[in-house]
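Budget justification aside, the reviewers requested a transparent look at the raw inputs and outputs of the sequence design task funded under Objective 1. We therefore reproduce one unedited record. The lines immediately below are the structure tokens for a 102-residue chain.
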């Protein structure tokens, strides 16, 4: 398993533990380039997650997509393979789930 695959597996465990809806868009060349690794919905709120391992950097296309999501009121995180980023993800999900419903 690659380091990024391990990061994605950890993210999946966090999302499953918090019972939020998510899917992972297929990265097979048929979709739009730069789409984040995870699309999440928690309590009616939108979150996009780009997973990175080690010193991995987001590409210009990934940054474009993350910026567009933020500009439209969604949340977008880049989650690296360390406890601080996993804790930030848990905090973000908890805030989303505890926010007033629409």
């Amino acid at each position: 398993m690659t380091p990024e695959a391990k990061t994605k597996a950890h993210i999946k465990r966090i999302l499953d533990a918090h019972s939020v809806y998510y899917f992972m868009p297929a990265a097979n060349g048929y979709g739009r380039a730069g789409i984040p690794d995870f699309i999440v919905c928690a309590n009616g709120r939108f979150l996009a997650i780009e997973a990175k391992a080690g010193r991995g950097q987001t590409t210009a296309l990934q940054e474009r997509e993350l910026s567009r999501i933020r500009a439209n009121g969604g949340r977008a995180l880049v989650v690296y393979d360390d406890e601080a980023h996993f804790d930030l993800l848990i905090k973000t999900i908890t805030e989303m789930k505890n926010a007033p419903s629409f």
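The mean pLDDT is 94. The radius of gyration is 13 Å. Computational costs for records of this kind are itemized in the attached budget.
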